[in-house]
Amino acid sequence: MRQGIDRDGRHLYPAFPYTHYTGLTDDDVGALYAYVMSRRPVEATAPANTLPFPLNLRPLIAGWNLLFFREGRFAPDPGRDEAWNRGAYLAEALSHCGACHSQRNFLGAEVTARAYTGGEADGWWSPALGAKSTAAPPWTEASLARYLVGWDPQHGGAAGPMGTVLKAHAGVQGSEIKALARYTASLFPMPAPDRAPLDRPIPEDDPSLTRGATIYAGACATCHESGGWAAGGVPYTVTSLGQRSSVTGPDPRNLIHVLRDGIAPEQDSAGPIMPAYGDTLTAGQVTDLAAYLRARFSDAGPWLKLDETVRALMPRAPEPRSATKLEGRP
């Protein structure tokens, strides 16, 4: 847990976040061990190492650790209050938030000088949590606390890997969530800039945006033009898609994942719901729709290589149907 060494003395790859767990207290390490040992044992064979040479040589991790790993317990900041320090411990050690939300170098190590400036996890983009955040309106301690337990009216909810994290928070004490929000909010500039969500008309002479607007009107507008839940519209929708970092951020992958796979709450529970369009929209239609959402709700400019990204994430998208097929002709 703290050194990245297994029981046989082999180095673990830092995909296991020992670089963060090194900060855990003795009590938490003991509690984790007690919990794991209470689980029913299973027989399983670890998959073979498929990393290419020389990455498949575990002894090289010793050199990686020498360069990038700093062992040591978490040290509270005496200049901060108890809640902030608890949140810092949760974020930096136990929850290892930076493992996803920080940039990494070419050797896979977190770049400490760019902590919380945005990263990725399981093929999803992880938004920046500090001054680089593209969120509009800006995050606050209160909005973070609401988001971390499932839904915030200003920013919505989470999907993908972060959605799994929020589901796990269902069993976490409220004081822990508030502490995590306290620390995370301190990463944002204070006072936070006032960035109202953008919603602007699109150019009428762009065929792609015109096609995207047509798709939006047919597939999205019923819910997303309702005014949002806060205004009495469709439950679990924000007032404007300009509030979603999946639209305003620098990476389109999160938006494409959601358009492809949709969103569904846990069985027998309330939550955001959205149909999946991966089996009904072509890759070209998803590209047009994503380009339209970006042009209407963000002033950051078009995403580069959007079409390539969509096709990489939707390799089995339906093909466009020709006019003769639509008319039932041979």
Write a compact overview of the structure shown:
This protein has helices spanning 18-21, 26-37, 60-68, 82-94, 98-101, 141-147, 160-168, 174-185, 207-219, 221-224, 245-248, 253-261, 283-297, 306-313, 323-326, and strands at residues 119-121, 124-126. The protein has 330 residues and is mostly helical.
Q: How many structural domains can be distinguished in the coordinates?
A: 3
Helix/strand structural class: mainly alpha
- Give unreliable regions as ranges: 323-330
The best one-word shape is: globular
* SSE order, one letter for each helix or strand: HHHHHEEHHHHHHHHHH
Helix content: 25-40%
Cα separation of the termini: 64 Å
According to DSSP, the number of beta strands is 2
Radius of gyration: 23 Å
Helical stretch tally: 15
Specify the biggest β-sheet.
Answer: 2 strands, antiparallel
Features:
330 residues, Cytochrome Bc1 Complex, Chain D, domain 2, 3 domains, globular, disordered C terminus
3D architecture notes:
By secondary structure, the protein is an all-alpha fold. The chain folds into three domains: 1-73, no CATH class; 75-196; 207-324, Cytochrome Bc1 Complex, Chain D, domain 2 (Orthogonal Bundle). It contains 15 helices and two strands. The protein has helices at 18-21, 26-37, 60-68, 82-94, 98-101, 141-147, 160-168, 174-185, 207-219, 221-224, 245-248, 253-261, 283-297, 306-313, 323-326, and strands at residues 119-121, 124-126. α4 crosses α8 (174-185) and α13 packs across α14 (306-313). The longest helix has 15 residues, at 283-297. The chain is globular, with a radius of gyration of 23 Å. The model is unreliable at 323-330 (pLDDT under 50).
